[in-house]
Amino acid sequence: MLRKIFLSVLLFFILAWQAQALDIMQPLVYEEGLDLSKWLMSEKLDGVRGYWDGRRLLSKNGLPFHPPEAFTGNFPAFAIEGEIWGGRNTFEKTISIVKQQHPHEDWLKLKFAVFDVPTAPGGFEKRLKKAQDWFAGHPAPHAFVIEHHPVDNQEHLARELNRIDSLGGEGIILRRRGSLYTPGRSNDILKVKSYYDREAVVLAHLPGSGRNEGRLGSLLVELPESGIRFKIGSGFSDAMRSHPPPIGSLITFKHYGFYASGIPKFPSFLRKKENF
């Protein structure tokens, strides 16, 4: 058993060493004051970033996923980019499915939500139309192209964000009309949320009390950029309180701005950051 575990861990690190992070386009954070008439919006899906290179489904770090052929059937021979998604509020379930190192039927509970065709020429709408045309002629039960809609003004954006929040969604993605695919952080793609999110390093597990006695009460964490330390005591499922993120691991949490001290306001755990 120990030998099997050792070989599995060794294989993971060999794959990680061989893989190279993909040079993909990534969003910045929306700030008010933008002329929204030049933008399109869609729901930001809370899944796992995926890159189909025409043959394989890869993570943003270039590591291969292992979906069964029934999942990727009718995917095109050209690159498409999207979110591997199981529906709202299913992120942990999605992670548990995609991280397995062999094809299995649970993949068929997921969808590949396409939001770009990175190697196609032209502006955003033209690139996305290539995916729309492909799947119109080659229906795929586990893929769809995300719909994008014009934004009228700030009030329109706020109403849509409130609607998505009420459904348990994560937020909105804005894409500048006609924008080219430019790898790295780009001001042509923006994420809009009703809260902020960022990462912190786990320093310690603090014990709980009451219904959480004998399990995690809160995490002591540190912001890597500033070294500021604080506790996060909310946002954990019962399973996470029984098996908290390891000390030294990186987590993502949400918050609502900062106090003058630099400590985030009302921090709440979102997820453990995965390395694929």
Would you mind describing this structure in some detail?
- The longest helix is centred in the N-terminal third of the chain and has 17 residues, at 2-18.
- By secondary structure, the protein is of the alpha+beta class.
- The strands form 3 sheets. It has a 5-stranded mixed β-sheet with strand order 1-10-9-2-8. The chain has a 5-stranded mixed β-sheet with strand order 4-3-5-6-7.
- The protein is built from 6 helices and 15 strands.
- It is globular and about 60 Å long.
- It has helices at residues 2-18, 69-72, 91-98, 124-137, 154-166, 238-242, and strands spanning 25-29, 39-43, 48-52, 57-58, 80-85, 111-116, 143-145, 149-150, 172-176, 184-192, 196-207, 216-222, 229-232, 250-255, 268-272.
- The protein folds into 2 domains: 18-192, D-amino Acid Aminotransferase, Chain A, domain 1 (2-Layer Sandwich), CATH 3.30.470; 196-272, OB fold (Dihydrolipoamide Acetyltransferase, E2P), CATH 2.40.50.
Could you list some keywords that capture this structure?
single chain; 276 residues; alpha+beta; D-amino Acid Aminotransferase, Chain A, domain 1; OB fold (Dihydrolipoamide Acetyltransferase, E2P); 2 domains; five-stranded mixed sheet; 6 helices; 30% strand
